[in-house]
Amino acid sequence: MPNQMTKGDASRIQSSQAQYGYNTGTGSFSARAQSAGDRNANTSSNSQSNNGQQSNTGK
């Protein structure tokens, strides 16, 4: 998917928010960006580790 939040994107957002004194705690924009970056990184790594094959778990 194009335009997904990456961990690098989240890092830049969090850094700039902290630099200018904005809230970086739970529920803040930077925290939500970090969560999205982590989620997308996990989804990406799971897709790559399966090599496009479905898991047989639970069969």
What brief labels describe this structure?
2 helices, SMP domain-containing protein, elongated
Distance between the termini: 30 Å
Task: Give the proportion of residues in helices.
Answer: 55-70%
In round numbers, the mean pLDDT is 84
What is the number of E strands? 0
**Beta-strand residue percentage:** under 5%
Number of helices: 2
Element-by-element helix/strand order: HH
Q: Given the C-alpha coordinates, what overall shape results? A: elongated
Radius of gyration of CA atoms, rounded to a whole number:
15 Å
Low-confidence stretches: none
The computed structural class is: mainly alpha
Major sheet size, sense and barrel closure: none
Description:
- There is one protein chain.
- With 59 residues, this protein is mainly alpha-helical.
- It has helices at 7-19, 29-50.
- It has a domain at 1-14 and 28-42.
- Helix 1 (7-19) packs antiparallel against helix 2 (29-50).
- The two termini are 30 Å apart.
- The model has no long low-confidence stretch (mean pLDDT 84).
- It comes from Aspergillus ruber (strain CBS 135680).
- Residues 1-33 have a biased composition (Polar residues).
Blueprint (SSEs and pairs):
Elements: H1 7-19, H2 29-50
Helix pairs in contact: 1-2
